[in-house]
Specification:
homodimer, alpha/beta, Aspartate Aminotransferase, domain 2, Aspartate Aminotransferase, domain 1, seven-stranded mixed beta sheet, 21 helices, 11 strands, 46% helix
């Protein structure tokens, strides 16, 4: 071929990439159809139980050079199948109960494809049209779920240009940042000759207010996104005040008042008080009504991080657990958690439909004043039409369907807690309030010994048990049959010592009683390994004097 | 049915939703296949040229109540087809040349489905496994494209836990915020008894530094995301210093020095100097080398916003236009723009692989110290495995394929500019440097009149022409056959007056010469409408004295 012919061939190939669909019998077509026809089957066959070290996997992803020449789609797809799909995590497996991922409803797959093919950009109406009112409707639906304003409210505000009932985000972190950003800017809005923090910045705002800093108050169970939020917003991580919790991982109101008094003494103003409706690690809910009372007493923005627990509002039986959420100024809910939408969808709702004006912005080529462009009230710019999948979930599953999912999750957690309690060799660390619980392996003989041992002995035993928990979790993860996560928590039952524990999240409707029993059995089997037995022997030695006493 | 039977039926239905695939002959299956087999055909049939007012469309999205009962997927899909797909914007149409959207390569659709079905969460290895090293590889590939470090560099850093060569984000806005956040935190890191801005906040940092504020310097063509960034970071929008540009929409270095001197006088420190590699509105590139010189002279972080223009680096012919980008401390590139990945994928790369440590964060249950979890260096938390689509694009299209796309876009823009220049009734406002240009309708008689008119006459004429541009753009958009966007720009040729102009972005490889000619023809036809003719008559009257003189 001459150079000119080659260039022509390249060009034709390029057009083909953009215009010719994948043949159904191509490798990509086959994987695609296998996934369409049977996600669970396909994933189980290709994903579960592949034991491979990360360092091994990394070898397939080490070349930093962008390939010069094009690759055939079929060839690339073989790579995807063997090196990516087969080496990914089967997050939808019913035995994957360690993180906040779950099986997806099937209809999410074809609908996602439509969303991706349409490639709308909801930052502006010009590139999204119907997706803009749809997103506004989704925000109104969630707003109503939380705040339940009367029938005159929604027709007035839902499609009102220049306003938004909330912001659709890539996830709960951006939602929390958006809430605190709006709270900060509202507290430090224009007054007198001060043009507001949005215009003049935090330093001038402090000078204007004559105060020494800004803070956010939240329990020590607050999500780590709040740490990022307070850093990025310029408040400083020291000013994220981690208030102590009670024995149920809920904020201690006395401690909250005390911490507030300390701030006041130092001349530091809270921009927000954050309540948690479903802590990430234990699934507990803060006393939202008491917090709302206190927030109104001190005149502070009240934000509720319900990224996980928000959809509990669907349940007639359990929605009372979130009582007081309707008094929050803003609420975060993640759609990719308990709304069962694919990864990358969060929301923040604001009680006051004008609240987001505190972060409003415009540009000459889009987001012009008076437009209905959603982008004028979001931290993010270009965004996909993911709210379509929330709309689909709410429509197809319905309130009652979600209620069933929520109720099942909570009841399954209670049942699993019961299992842990009844098993002689496990110890429940946090009782489930929603559908999350924590526990650890702690053999009955050791539980007895610890209950009678000295503080020093107990503390030493806990350190060794922490190692046991870490090892069991690691082995179980690596075996790939089931998965629980681990975290560390201060436990009131152990004088506030920090314990490493297993964490279980029960949101997959396909997780059965038998699967949960198998998770515990597998852990008991792992414990029989040499390394862990040695650790348990070390624990035994700590209490040997006690055993000797027993023997007498 | 008894209540119990109903509950059982509901439960079974729910399991079905999570486990039974959509039948190929269901409505959803049909749409899905239609899209699989022929995206362009399907979209053209269903989307283009549907004229419907927003207020009409909104009527289908006004109910704020979440449906109580489940809906059949088939029923819901009819709704999606008629009310959403048919009322969306055909962003992939070859005649849609107004925004930064384009046709997607076909293989992105089945691969996206796989990504969605796997539902990985790349915040942590435990829920993403191979997706973590893959994302790290993608970041390394882009890092190398920009910085081209030697062969020892990448093996050392690519998979090094605790570090990251960049951050994968939902888009360019989060990428820009991440860059400026890291820059701010590095400038104000721990020193002496000051624990750093991340810990103590901006107010204490100013007291420690004894300075009066922080700023970001960028040309007035900077993207609106920088305004959000500076607001959220606590610097205040006043401190986003919009430096004047030269006649080619590039930052004026003299003005930059002048603005910096003003800041210095006021005791305000710049946290970053931002260069633009492809301004959103005109596609121009700042003098990056000169800016890098200046940044190093004043000891300031140099960030380049190459969200749009970054992939120009693929082109051997045009990469010189971005010369100096390799001297930037950080660079933003959007994958959903000229890497042709579906909406929702941006990146920021850092020259120094330790730079992101300035925003590092941890949590007990994930992102533990020493882990390779990507989430410890991103602003966002839970994120989908979108980097897979970038990996696919780079592999399948290859460097040479992207080069072809870039070259075609730039050459098409030159050709279109030529068309505008040759047409007597259009006026080119900004010459294309990359693949973006602006122009307006300005009939030849008026161009002549304006060239000889008084300043006052010209200014009045411009105001009326602005209205013409707005109307033409609106009518063309509403007709739905083709789309150009509009913006307003200060034009040096008109003594820095702000003009409303058409903006054209040429990145869709399917856009042909004929389509572009048709865009201009359609605009000429729209101008013939009564309302616009009346406006043009008004302009004529402004110059009537001139015409009378001509007649003499």
């Amino acid at each position: 071929m001459t150079k000119k012919e080659m260039a022509q061939a390249n060009l034709e190939n390029l057009y083909r990439i953009f215009t010719v669909p994948e043949a159904p019998d191509s490798t990509l077509g086959q994987i695609d159809h296998a996934i369409t026809d049977n996600v669970t089957g396909f994933l189980q066959e290709h994903v579960v139980a592949l034991q491979r070290e990360m360092e091994e996997i990394e070898k397939d992803f080490t070349n930093p050079c962008i390939p010069e020449e094009p690759t055939f789609v079929s060839e690339y797809t073989e790579f995807v199948k063997d090196k990516l799909v087969a080496q990914s995590v089967h997050t939808a497996a019913p035995s994957f109960v360690g993180h906040m991922t779950s099986a997806l409803p099937y209809f999410m797959l074809p609908l996602s494809r439509i969303m991706i093919a349409l490639n709308q950009n909801v930052v502006k109406v010009e590139t999204s049209k119907a997706f803009t009112p749809m997103e506004r409707q989704v925000l109104a639906m969630l707003h109503r779920l939380i705040y339940n304003f009367d029938d005159n409210f929604y027709p007035e505000w839902i499609h009102k240009s220049q306003y938004a009932l909330g912001a659709f985000c890539s996830g709960g972190t951006i939602a929390n940042i958006t809430a605190l950003w709006a709270a900060r800017n509202r507290l430090l809005g224009p007054s007198g000759d001060f043009k507001g923090i949005a215009q003049e910045g935090l330093f001038r705002a402090m000078q204007h207010l004559q105060c020494n800093g800004l803070a956010v108050l939240v329990s020590r169970r607050g999500h780590y996104s709040l740490g990022k939020a307070i850093d990025v917003l310029g408040l400083g991580r020291e000013n994220l005040i981690a208030v102590d919790t009670d024995e149920n991982n809920r904020i201690d109101m006395k401690q909250l008042r005390y911490q507030y008094a300390l701030l006041k003494e130092k001349g530091i103003r809270p921009i927000a008080l954050v309540g948690i409706a479903g802590t990430t690690e234990t699934g507990n809910v803060d006393p939202l009504n008491e917090m709302a009372d206190f927030a109104s007493e001190i005149g502070c923005h009240f934000h509720v991080d319900a990224a996980w627990g928000g959809p509990t509002l669907f349940s007639e039986k359990y929605r009372h657990l979130l009582s007081g959420i309707e008094r929050a100024d803003s609420v975060t809910i993640d759609a990719h958690k308990q709304l069962y939408v694919p990864m990358g969808a969060g929301m923040v709702l604001f009680k006051d439909p004008t609240a987001l004006s505190a972060i409003e912005h415009h540009a000459a080529y889009i987001l012009r004043h008076g437009s209905k462009d959603l982008g004028s009230h979001t931290l993010e710019g270009s965004r996909p039409g993911k709210s379509m999948l929330v709309h689909a979930g709410l429509s197809i599953i319905g309130r009652k369907g979600y209620e069933l999912l929520i109720d099942m999750g909570i009841e399954k957690a209670k049942m699993f807690a019961e299992k842990v309690n009844q098993h002689p060799d496990f110890e429940l660390i946090s009782e489930p309030e929603l559908n999350i619980l924590t526990y650890r392996y702690n053999p009955s003989w050791l539980q007895l010994a610890m209950s009678q041992g000295s503080a020093e002995q107990v503390s030493k035993a806990n350190q060794l048990l922490d190692q046991v928990t870490r090892l069991v979790q690691k082995h179980q993860r690596e075996a790939g049959k089931s998965f629980v996560s681990r975290t560390s928590l201060r436990a009131k039952a152990y004088c506030d010592e920090t314990l490493t524990v297993f964490r279980v999240v029960l949101a997959n409707p396909l997780t059965t009683d038998e699967i949960l029993s198998a998770v515990l059995e597998e852990q008991c089997a792992i414990v029989q390994g040499k390394e862990i037995q040695q650790l348990l022997q070390d624990v035994k030695n700590i209490f040997s004097d006690f055993e000797q006493r027993q023997a007498c």
